[in-house]
Amino acid sequence: MQTLIIEIDPELCNGCQVCVKICPARAFTLIDKTAVLTGECTFACDHCAAACPQAAIKTSSPDFAPCHLTTVTDSTELTATPTKPGELVALMLARRSCRLYTNREISRDILTDLVNIAITAPSGTNSQQWTFSIIDKRSRVTAFGTEIAGYYRRLNRLAKKRWLRQILKFCGKPELDHYYHEYYDSINEGLDLWYEKNEDRLFHGAPALIFIGARPGASCPGEDALLATQNILLAAESMGLGTCLIGFAVEALRRDAKIQKTLNIPAPEKIYSVIALGHPALTFQRPAQRRKISINWID
Ligand SMILES: Cc1cc2nc3c(=O)[nH]c(=O)nc-3n(C[C@H](O)[C@H](O)[C@H](O)COP(=O)(O)O)c2cc1C
Fold first, then answer.
1. Which element (helix H / strand E) includes 131?
2. Does any ligand 1 atom lie closer than 6 A to the CB of residue 183?
3. Is there a contact between 241 and 106 (Cβ–Cβ < 8 Å)?
4. From ligand 1's centre to the CA of 247, what distance in Å?
5. For the chain, what are the domain ranges?
6. Helix axes of 138-160 and 162-170: crossing angle, nearest 10 degrees
7. 237 Cα to the center of ligand 1, angstroms
8. Which CATH number is 86-138+203-278 given?
9. Measured between alpha carbons, how far is 276 from 88 in angstroms, rounded to an integer?
10. Which class does domain 5-60 fall in?
11. Which ligand 1 atom sits closest to the C-alpha of 204?
């Protein structure tokens, strides 16, 4: 169980009960018009200190620290309502998957800031069991790409065997047959380009990769990791960087534990996203079109 050390200054507390009302663990009680900690701080969410109008609550823990960035001017002032609400939407519209990068590498300071921005995301029961591993050299990205290419070469060899696909299908496992029909040809093409022309259809020439995973024990590991991922995609866009999620790498990491080992990512960690990123070699001129959506209004 995670916990924060909570100190309430009875001189400052005016008994407004904000902490009593918002604590998800119901750890505060109003006694003699002053908030008193009577329960356990099981969420370590820090909402009490963040919301107290009197600044009467102080929280601390050796494991927690405020978000601090080095390459971006961060502000401790909260702007829940941005001065220009459309700015966030404009950023979201501008973010597109980047499949063309320059050779320029991204500094470790910027990559570290992206991770610090990622972890401002919500997490189930505030468990924050997400993990971040980073490759910041193009040569290392290529070495990892060769591992992934090897995985798909083996998979394509298996998928080519019609009899094997049929037997598996007969046994209620149609996945290999599905893969064959959906991906075999395009993967073969990508493999030819990788091995014969050094062309990178996998990571699109990106100089850096961020792997976002979760340690065992998180209540919602996939959701947590993907929310952190989206933060990185948007923050990178705001810094002028291009990003692309690489599902093919996630799939290979999940199916072949040996590949994860080559990255020194401990086996119990499960990877939920791989983000390729770098300086984009092209600028999108127009926002994306999306499939029309129909909302199910529930009365
Ligand atoms: C889970 C997931 C996996 C993806 N995997 C890949 C991938 O392996 N390679 C790739 O080029 N793009 C990949 N993408 C990017 C999608 O193709 C892209 O988001 C989609 O076409 C919409 O385009 P946009 O991101 O430019 O708006 C992936 C996206 C998601 C959400």
1. strand 130-135
2. no
3. yes
4. 7
5. 5-60, 86-138+203-278, 146-197
6. 80
7. 15
8. 3.40.109.10
9. 22
10. alpha beta
11. 11
Ligand 1 center from residue 98 Cα (angstroms)? 9
Q: Is the CB of 165 within 6 Å of ligand 1? A: no
Which pLDDT tens digits describe the chain residue by residue (299 residues)?
A: 568 999 999 999 999 999 999 999 999 999 999 999 999 998 899 999 999 999 999 999 998 988 889 998 876 666 666 667 788 889 999 999 999 999 999 999 999 999 999 999 999 999 999 999 999 999 999 999 999 999 999 999 999 999 999 999 999 999 999 999 999 999 999 999 999 999 999 999 999 999 999 999 899 999 999 999 999 999 999 999 999 999 999 999 999 999 999 999 999 999 999 999 999 999 999 988 999 999 999 99
> By alpha-carbon position, which residue is closest to atom 26 of ligand 1?
96
Residue 56 pairs with which residues in a beta bridge? Answer: none
Q: How far is the CA of 285 from the centre of ligand 1 (A)?
A: 19
Task: Evaluate: CB of 247 within 6 angstroms of ligand 1.
Answer: yes
Nearest to 122 by CA among 18, 229, 5, 276: 229
For ligand 1, the distance from its centroid to the CA atom of residue 273, given in whole angstroms, is 11
